[in-house]
């Protein structure tokens, strides 16, 4: 008998928490105050028996009104007990997490970069043609995107619309899908001249600009050794101003080449891409989101301020280094 009662208590405990208790209490109050409470009590007795039979629970004394309240609260609530609990959870959502100060600064910086990046950009689409290098691979152009197939040695595309030549930026995303050499040879105007930004040249590891003072990307001041993974998209941006040629990859400035006192041109094999185009050397590559924008006076003023700050920083560094050397010499003299 004791075991049976324990089992009944366990079943009742599992059953009762599933019902919205506030609604049950309300129905109980109504039944006790209603003039037909005796009639309702008889009805609840029957429902109590059915409920106990359905869940294999022995009849519980003095629970008739409570049983009826449970049934009606579920019926008139128009939802199941589980749904009622779920709705209750949804109506009282957990408070949103407050970002840390460092995260807020990162988010602010990201928003600013997005705002600057979206300013005045125009997609380069509608005037692309396939280059004719000889030995070209299959090339597919769609809007401001392109798939450039393996060439022997080169394949590429050329822009035949209007071009900007001074104080502008050009940007795109590029990836190499197969092969080992340069997958983005971006040729663009620099005034009346032109240059090519080479990514992954000379067997895959060279980044630089061709040509500066007749020296290509493998042997001038912009030459860098960098690994480029296949099937990875790289964000590329080049800026031409009166003072310099600057290039960024994935948001990091990697090239800052002064214009004054230098002669710029491209290698002869890249002439099919002038004045603006993209080529790939013995590899399959993809280019997307090609776009261009004219720099505003605000952009140029901001750049001049950055250059001024850099110059001040370099001067301060040189001054500190000189002071350190003087201190070392003085200490050496004193020790003697």
Short account of what is shown:
The protein has 336 residues and is of the alpha+beta class. The chain has helices at 2-15, 21-33, 37-54, 64-76, 81-91, 101-117, 297-335; strands at 122-123, 128-130, 139-142, 145-148, 154-159, 168-179, 184-190, 193-201, 206-210, 224-225, 234-240, 244-249, 252-258, 277-281, 283-294. Helices cover 37% and strands 27% of the residues.
Q: Please name the CATH architecture of the largest domain.
A: Sandwich
Overall residue-averaged pLDDT value: 77
Quote the distance from N terminus to C terminus. 104 Å
Number of structurally distinct domains: 2
Task: Please state the structural category.
Answer: alpha+beta
Beta-strand proportion: 25-35%
Helix content: 25-40%
Q: What is the name of the CATH superfamily of the largest domain?
A: Exo-inulinase, domain 1
Q: Sketch the major β-sheet.
A: 8 strands, antiparallel
Using the coordinates above, name the CATH class of the largest domain.
Answer: Mainly Beta
Order of helices and strands: HHHHHHEEEEEEEEEEEEEEEH
> What is the CATH topology classification name of the largest domain?
Jelly Rolls
Low-confidence stretches: 15-29, 59-63, 65-69, 71-91
Outline: extended
User: How many individual β-strands?
Assistant: 15
**Rg calculated over all Cα atoms:** 38 Å
Query: How many helix segments?
Result: 7
Biased composition (Basic and acidic residues): 317-336
Keywords: Membrane, Transmembrane, Transmembrane helix
Domain 3-keto-alpha-glucoside-1,2-lyase/3-keto-2-hydroxy-glucal hydratase: 165-293
Protein name: 3-keto-alpha-glucoside-1,2-lyase/3-keto-2-hydroxy-glucal hydratase domain-containing protein
